[in-house]
Write a sequence for this structure.
């Protein structure tokens, strides 16, 4: 088992107020345990005027990102690190009071990227290249969860989520870090996980915990989620048809969305060509499918006007 000598923390941020809460929690958790060599905050705001929340008066290093998304921001951060491990945290999580102590235990269980790797691979075991923390979503009490709250709750079971993910720095160097062609906080973590496991390393789940508040979405949150479909296409191009199974990603409703789109196009095309039978049949399929989609998203929730 490799000895853990040092670790650094990298936090990409767009300047959300939650960053101050994270930094305060980090400050408290390292009081009772050895802390990181460095805490690197990557300022990925498009307009980086003014200080970031919670950074004044704290021992943190703020680097300027390119406003190119979290993948690029994390690369900017980890490439300046010197620790054996790089721990990535999202700027909206809250580490528990014993997080640093449990992190040290988690990393202590991992095998270092040493010359032992070839021997372990011959024995059918891969070197541990990364350790994933546990995410507990702080759900609002009472009432039905909103569509947004249900989406955030999915982080609890998400594989390789960078809400709390530690990688050996040498492993990051070997695979090239995050793929910056992923511009959103979506699939860039799964892509890295697939490349790390594909290189023969194992990713294990640790015992440390961060809490993730649900937060309040803005009005465009749903549209940004739909934009992630482009990242699914890139995942298919990079990792093949079986990437969802390999990454533990749910299949979602993609096939239904494609069928609805085809039905809508057929309805419009039939109407333009005056083929009323085709137009009516396709329109009925589109209407029924759209109603089913709306019901599937609205029914489990509070069914309030703002949610609808």
């Amino acid at each position: 088992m490799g000895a853990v000598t040092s670790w650094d923390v990298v936090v990409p941020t767009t300047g959300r107020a939650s960053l101050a809460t994270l930094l305060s929690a980090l400050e408290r958790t390292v009081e009772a345990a050895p802390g990181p060599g460095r805490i690197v905050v990557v300022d990925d705001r498009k307009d980086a005027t003014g200080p970031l929340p919670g950074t004044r008066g704290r021992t943190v290093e703020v680097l300027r990102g390119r406003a190119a998304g979290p993948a690029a921001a994390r690369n900017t951060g980890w490439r300046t690190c010197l620790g054996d491990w790089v721990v990535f945290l999202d700027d909206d999580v809250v580490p528990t009071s014993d997080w640093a102590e449990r992190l040290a235990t988690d990393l202590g269980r991992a095998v270092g990227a040493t010359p032992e790797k070839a021997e372990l691979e011959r024995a059918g075991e891969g070197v541990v290249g990364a350790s994933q923390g546990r995410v507990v979503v702080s759900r609002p009490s009472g009432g039905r969860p909103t569509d947004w709250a249900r989406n955030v709750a999915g982080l609890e079971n998400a594989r390789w989520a960078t809400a709390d993910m530690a990688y050996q720095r040498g492993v990051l160097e070997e695979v090239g870090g995050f793929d910056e062609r992923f511009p959103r906080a979506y699939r860039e973590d799964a892509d890295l996980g697939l490349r790390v496991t594909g290189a023969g390393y194992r990713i294990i789940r640790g015992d440390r915990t961060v809490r993730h508040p649900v937060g309040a979405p803005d009005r465009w949150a749903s549209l940004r989620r739909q934009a992630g479909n482009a990242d699914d296409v890139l995942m298919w191009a990079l990792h093949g048809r079986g990437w969802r199974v390999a990454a533990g990603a749910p299949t979602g409703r993609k096939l239904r969305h494609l069928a609805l789109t085809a039905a809508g196009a057929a309805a419009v095309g039939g109407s333009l060509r005056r083929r009323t039978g085709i137009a009516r049949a396709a329109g009925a399929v589109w209407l029924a499918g759209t109603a089913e989609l709306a019901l599937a998203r609205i029914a489990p929730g509070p069914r309030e006007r703002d949610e609808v």
In short: Residues 178 and 192 are 6 Å apart (CA to CA).
